[in-house]
Design brief:
The protein has one helix spanning 52-83; strands at 8-16, 21-29, 36-43. It is of the alpha+beta class. Strands 1-2-3 form a three-stranded antiparallel beta sheet. The protein is elongated. The model has no long low-confidence stretch (mean pLDDT 93).
Length: 91
Amino acid sequence: MTQTKRWTVEITVDEHEDELRTHARARLQAGDRADLLGEGTARRNPSDREVPVIGDELAVARALSDLAHNLLDAAANDIEAITSRPAHLST
């Protein structure tokens, strides 16, 4: 029997022009598990041209990377709770 689950990632992006930075949050909603969060920031050099989409891309990529690491940590903790042995997961 095939079972399909739906996990949702919501991404929010905040641009702080006065600070030359963009901050992103990636929140994973995965059914009955507690939400997981990843965060990322991009900073623009004052001498660089302002291209907001690049800051968005960098901040979101970093937030998703952080979220992925947090999800791996959660999986390792779940494995360790079941097996009572250290889990060694790699990316």
